[in-house]
Design goal:
The chain is mostly helical and 561 residues long. The protein is 73% helix and 1% strand.
């Protein structure tokens, strides 16, 4: 039971968290939903009739759905076998290859797309090389359309399946597989009836994340779409053309589709058919001892690593190209370090970097504080309406970036206090607010998991020894949850650094982030500068990961001791 000292704090924090969620998460989306049914000041379904009566809009909805579905299939076909390969078999370079398999995580969406443009585009290095080798007048292939989008999605999103299934294999109860085999089941039957059901949570989680990411994808369709309509692009184009009514309808349709898939997969994930009741044991690693098989495994590993590294190496090479010199050649004819020198010396080139760092830091700091309070209320205090709080916290994760950007831009575009609206459009603060809302679920879930992993008896012991509630929180609770909180905040920070989809909807000239500047340089055919920004962004993300992992390790050791 909550003590009299704790109750006022609990009530105040609960009310504050609920008000913020209702105002910043639910209200903008509810406002968009209501406005999509308003026409000439009256309730109408005309906008929805227009949407479903338009062949182009129906095509955009269908394309978004089937591209997302195939993105899940292709990503699974790549990520799941890789997870099994590196988990079950031991061969030369296995640990190195397993680590490099996660390399696409370091590529923010727009940066990854640009690297593919420089490598596989019609004027890309590989395309021009093949054209010259085969003596063709035109490039051998055109990296555009649905095939190009799926290729980019599969490369960047297979990591979800690889990481989720790798973690699932570590928790897999192999004694159940052995029991099935001892009862006469074949290897394939044991795999289908025992192994896969145990991996269902990992597969469902990866499928959900892949599908939602694909539905929200903007960069790949924007650069490589070649006329392919998807809803995320339709929203941007409708807003750009001033057709806000249709943009709102498209927003509602896209958000509804994403939330429906989220609910369906979560419902399936909530079943208990795949749960084990024993602690179990891990499957022993199989050593690949045959010389030919070891050679094939090593060769396949080298090819895989080369394929994964090519986009990164391409960006690094092009970052030294002098702007305006690379046109029809296979490789840039002139190289320079001016691109990097301008980033660090010219204030106009440095400004987007500082903007991204500042806005990501502001949003992540707010995420950190909000997550600590929200997770403490949900897990430790078990306040009323926990289900509502959890749903509101998860809602931004189910909404594509274009949906979030348009809902905030439509809601906070004027001062009307009685409607709960303030003017943020055109100001510096709307974009950091969007980053805060966008990454709220990631940090809260990380902190919530930390709270659930340590025994509340530790906190109660501190209280029983005379410590105040504030003292026990500061000396017991915070040290235990800090590693999880910082890990979630780290992910939110690096994601905000390279965020593009939400940014392109609501940025201003005064707070343009790195991703928008990369696109601007690309449009001006300053390929060297665009690549230099991209490499610098990858460096920032990589350096943040390395430094934070060392810091998190030290904090974790301190908490354990």
């Amino acid at each position: 039971m909550s003590s009299p000292v704790r109750r006022p704090f609990t009530t105040a924090f609960h009310a504050l968290i609920l008000v913020l969620l209702l105002w910043l998460v639910l209200y903008p989306n509810a406002y968009i939903l209501v406005q999509s049914f308003i026409g000439a000041g009256a309730l109408t379904f005309a906008h929805y009739i227009e949407f479903f009566g338009s062949a182009s809009e129906r095509e955009a909805l269908w394309n978004s759905l089937w591209i997302s579905g195939w993105s899940v299939v292709l990503s699974g076909l790549i990520g799941v076998p890789l997870a099994f390969l590196f988990y079950r078999f031991d061969f030369p370079g296995r640990k190195v290859f397993a680590a490099l398999a996660s390399l696409p995580v370091l590529l923010p969406p727009l940066v990854g797309v640009i690297s593919f443009l420089f490598l596989y585009g019609e004027s890309g290095i590989l395309s021009r090389s093949l054209q010259r080798w085969f003596g063709l007048r035109e490039p051998l292939f055109s990296f555009r359309g649905a095939g190009a989008i799926l290729f980019v999605h599969a490369y960047t999103m297979y990591v979800y399946f690889y990481m989720f299934v790798s973690a699932g294999l570590k928790r897999l109860d192999y004694t159940l597989v052995e029991a099935a085999r001892s009862l006469g089941a074949s290897s394939s039957r044991a795999f289908l009836r025992v192994t896969l059901p145990q991996l269902a949570p990992s597969l469902v989680g990866a499928s959900l994340l892949t599908f939602m990411t694909s539905m929200a994808s903007f960069s790949a369709p924007y650069i490589f779409g070649g006329g392919i309509r998807v809803l995320s692009l339709q929203i941007y184009n409708s807003k750009l053309n001033g057709d806000l009514e249709m943009a709102m309808v498209e927003t509602v349709i896209l958000a509804s589709s994403s939330i429906l898939v989220l609910l369906l997969l979560q419902r399936y994930e909530g079943t208990s058919k795949y749960r084990s009741t024993t602690k179990g044991a891990r499957q022993p690693v199989t050593l690949v001892s045959h010389p030919l098989k070891r050679l094939l495994a090593g060769g396949a590993g080298i090819v895989t690593v080369a394929f994964l590294l090519l986009p990164h190496l391409t960006l690094f090479l092009i970052s030294f190209a002098k702007d305006g010199t690379w046109t029809m050649e296979i490789l840039p004819p002139r190289y320079t370090i001016e691109n990097y020198a301008r980033l660090l010396s010219d204030s106009s080139f440095l400004e987007p970097i500082l903007n991204s760092l500042q806005m990501a830091a502001l949003a992540t700091s707010a995420n950190f504080v909000f997550a600590l309070v929200a997770a403490y209320l949900i897990v430790r205090q078990q306040v009323r309406g926990r289900a509502l709080l959890g749903s509101l916290i998860l809602l931004p994760w189910a909404l594509p970036g274009t949906v979030l950007g348009l809902s905030l831009a439509s809601t906070f575009n004027q001062n009307s206090l009685w409607q709960g609206r303030i003017l943020l459009v055109g100001t510096y603060w709307l974009l950091p607010l969007a980053y805060f809302i966008r990454h709220m679920p990631v940090v809260v879930r990380a902190v919530q998991a930390s709270f659930e992993q340590f025994d509340p008896a530790l906190e109660e012991a501190a209280r029983s020894l005379g410590g105040t509630w504030i003292y026990s929180v500061r000396r017991v609770v915070l040290p235990m949850v800090l590693p999880g909180a910082l890990a979630g905040s780290l992910l939110a920070f690096v994601t905000a650094l390279g965020e593009f989809v939400t940014s392109i909807v609501i940025y201003t000239i005064h707070n343009r982030p790195i991703s928008i500047e990369i696109l601007a340089q690309l449009r001006q055919f300053n390929f060297g500068s665009a690549a230099a920004y991209s490499v610098f962004l990858i460096f920032l993300i990589g350096a943040t990961f390395v430094v934070s992992q060392k810091y998190l390790s030290d904090i974790g050791d301190g908490a354990v001791s």
